[in-house]
Design a protein that fits this description.
Keywords: 4Fe-4S, Iron, Iron-sulfur, Metal-binding, Oxidoreductase. There is one protein chain. With 710 residues, the protein is of the alpha/beta class. It has four domains: 46 residues, ADC-like domains (N-terminal domain of TfIIb), CATH 2.20.25; 227 residues, Rossmann fold (3-Layer(aba) Sandwich); 206 residues, 3-Layer(aba) Sandwich (Dimethylsulfoxide Reductase, domain 2); 122 residues, Barwin-like endoglucanases, CATH 2.40.40. It has 26 helices and 28 strands. A hairpin with a 4-residue loop joins strand 25 and strand 26. The protein starts with 8 loop residues before the first strand and ends in an 18-residue tail after the last strand. Bound molecules: iron/sulfur cluster.
Amino acid sequence: MSTENNEPIKTICPYCGVGCGIKVRPGDMRFMPWADAPVNEGSICIKGGAATEVVEHEDRLTDPLIKEDGEFREASWDEAYSYIVEEMERIHDDYGPDGMGFFSSSKTMNEENYLLQKLARRYGTNQIDNCTRMCHASTVWALRTSLGAGAMTNSMADLEEKADVFWIQGANPGEQHPIANSQYFRQAVLEGATVIQVDPHANKTTRSFDIEGTERHMHLQNEPGTDIPLLNVVIKTILEKHEENPDEGWIDEAFIEERTQGFDHLKETLSDFVKAEAAEQCGVPLEDIERAAEKYAMANNSAIFTGMGMSQHTCGVDNVQNEINLALITGNLGRPGTGVNPLRGQNNVQGACDVGAMPNVLPGYQLVDDDEARESVEDVWGFEIPPEPGLTNVEISHAAGDTVHGLYIMGENPVMSEPDGNRVEERIKDLEFLCVQDIFMTETAKYADVILPATTWAERGGTVTNTDRRVQRMRGAGKVHETTKHDLDILCEVGTRLFGEGFDFDGPEDVFEELRQVCPDYHGMTYDALGETGIHWPCKEPGDEGDSFLYEDGFTTDSGYGQIEGVRHQSPAEVPDEEYPLILTTGRLEEHYNTGTMSRRSPTLKRQHPENFVDIHPNDADRYGIEDGDTVKLRSRRGEIEVKVQVTEAIKEGSIWTTPHFAAASANRLTNDVLDERAKIPEYKAAAAEIEVDIDPADEASTDDTPADD
Ligand code: SF4
């Protein structure tokens, strides 16, 4: 291993978007705590503590692989590069630039995502996307359109200090952002804040606020897919109370008047809305929702947290818009302790979007179909950017073998991460050329024509942007395998071989220097200025300290106003029927991460949850004759998986809950790939399903999970 000394390096946890600082000791690649890390001050969750376990894992890819006669064989880097360039040029000649798609990665760094999106655009296509499409595309759309920026409005620190009410809807920070939950949100509750949680599933977040001696936690356990009616009950309650008692401060009239547009549309939308009917539809007592509305509206500072329970619906944009409506009419934006705050899943999903790894925006969320924005980037890049938005990643998968014939994937695993995985797998087999750049053999890489072995997060440097817009530096502890290459170096070489110029960079800092020229929110940052604490964007000029909260002086929408827009309930695309009488909803576990490529190889994490399971309500279990621990088959219109049963009141009767992490029984074999019309995010959170009991015990071993190449 190439290291200069054994001083632990300071870097960032590779898992969730909280952005905790950790140390890695070169040589043995051991995890060490970073006591004064800016976000977490030395605290760490089980995933962060186990993060280094996979760095030296025996399954690491160490040499380029090329498929020949259906089998992989080792190849030299030169041969692999030549093969890739030849195939990409052939596809360009045969089908034009939109014959290729590019999947960037929320698990890789800003500089790497920046380079891959630049490479796609130099190739002539905007068909570049990252997994934000699957988690928060709708949130980003709604926030960008109605407030100005597709990101958390506030920071974890100001929320902990100033928020009186935490409204957490469709998010499970206790499980998915453990340090944000324990160190910031729970701490605030211990100091007097109130939590209102809206979620169909009782989970670790619910349990984390069950604090002895406090009554400051409400859980509104709604039916899946009823977030709009629930929020409409809240908003209508606030409007009615304001009518009755205009001086009590239920809404913020001055804020609405001076800083928003669309209030009349909201009132009109709710004019014939019947609260009692909606509460029944939600499965939550009306008086509980009214009580929650009062707590939110009457607090000095109320903050909304939103997660994938809101975003992953065909009405995902409208779900988030209704949260924005609530915040705008009560004036809960533009100051500490307020806002609408999406908790981002992966350690650099925010950054991958910021640097333009999406089909409709360039770095800094500048629209590709905005001539002026495009020209300003072209001035730096020196080539023309295609003016039309490209296909999103799910659309690219749908088009594989049809209009898309080649795919370049950096660090993603769509066969497991995208909905209707069986269909994705079939389509990917139809590609003429698939290149995968990764650290392990994945369920997707099995179908590749060429695989490039990359280095892990611990071995290389760069920057990542966490959930509250803090850009932080990662530092490399040196390579484990000299034959592997950093993602950035691979992209520089592929770009240079394809295009001759524009991709010759001297490491990540050199790339960052170009990035800040084309990304206005990063323009004031340098590696030196980021130092060890990082900077929250926007940081527009050198010397700016960045903003921990947004919109103090105005919104950054086209009009300058916050946009209110009334929305109505929309049922999920699939609702229960005779054949599929249950609603399947999905979520993640604290101990696992996405498709499990890393976490399933970590002994510590795998021990906690070695295989998938399904939560079933006791009444449903009785009806089906199922006991806790039985193995059942879950079926949807798209596929089936076998899982063990947990009988629990954590889930509502009529709903079942499972996870996407395990290859042997991934929830995404069942989920529906229908998309939100605007943001193109799939509806992972609601699909019609059925349970089949009396599984042959001889087949039960199939629920055991192993990584793709074991
Ligand atoms: S909370 Fe997130 S960033 Fe922090 S240690 Fe855990 S997984 Fe890593």
